[in-house]
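debug: dumping io for the single-chain case to check the tokenizer round-trip. Nothing else runs in this session.
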Amino acid sequence: MRQDPEESEEVGKSFTDLLAEEVKQKEAEAEEKQRSVDTKLLEAKKLASQYQKEADKCNSGMETCEQARERAEAALENQMKETALWELRARQRGWNKKMLQ
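debug: decoded output
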């Protein structure tokens, strides 16, 4: 049985056309997946940036709080020293805690 050359050529073209169509379809799918990945990456970057801003605000607030705590601690220490000094002076002049009762 002998094959017709025209039929063989037509089958070859048809096969080539099918392969070309499949390649185009795969390219389109790959492009769509890439767009989807790019979109998700952009969203992730935005979220990371947002979280970083929140973390920076939190760190700034912590620094402010720590500075205020240190100032309050220093003020309390100074107040306790001053109180002790006044109490010492009062005791030197005859004052004692029983006088308050």
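debug: round-trip ok. The helical segments are 5-92.
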